[in-house]
Automatic annotation (TrEMBL):
Entries under InterPro entries matching the protein: LexA/Signal_pep-like_sf, Mito_IMP1_subunit, Pept_S26A_Sod_Ni_maturase, Peptidase_S24_S26A/B/C, Peptidase_S26
Alphabetical keyword list: Hydrolase, Membrane, Protease
Protein name per its UniProtKB record: Nickel-type superoxide dismutase maturation protease
Principal subcellular localisation of the protein: membrane
Species the sequence originates in: Streptomyces yaanensis
Compartmental location: Endomembrane system
GO-annotated molecular function: peptidase activity
Taxonomy of the source species: Bacteria, Bacillati, Actinomycetota, Actinomycetes, Kitasatosporales
UniProt domain Peptidase S24/S26A/S26B/S26C: residue ranges: 21-82
Amino acid sequence: MPELSQETERTRALLPFGPAEVTGPSMVPTLQHGDRLLVQYGARVRPGDVVVLRHPFQQDLLVVKRAVELREGGWWVLGDNPYAGGDSTDYGAVPEELVLGKVWFRYRPLRNGQRSPLALVRWALSAARPVFSDRSASKRLRAR
């Protein structure tokens, strides 16, 4: 499951927007290991949004998932990679107070070895993108 750097926690206390770094495969293909995120802390969350939250059983661990549905016990969150796990199918609904913010933007840093002109052009065209809400995220929920 994607963890976020500890720098994220310090930044959140000072500004409504802050950086985060993804580790892990649970949000592939939307987010890749090593992606940098721009997170708006305290933002209103709607179904389909990609969110940063505290893990319900290990609250010093911050994770990023897609908010699928608001239920009685909190947000039902899922990773975009159905094979990775580590989401509400494992730990149930996440209380609303553990959902910290909404992801607005992702930046994919240049990898070592990306030096050819074609590789640099491809990177430049895809490195920075907004993270859109997927209103059809509930399709995966219905399929379970």
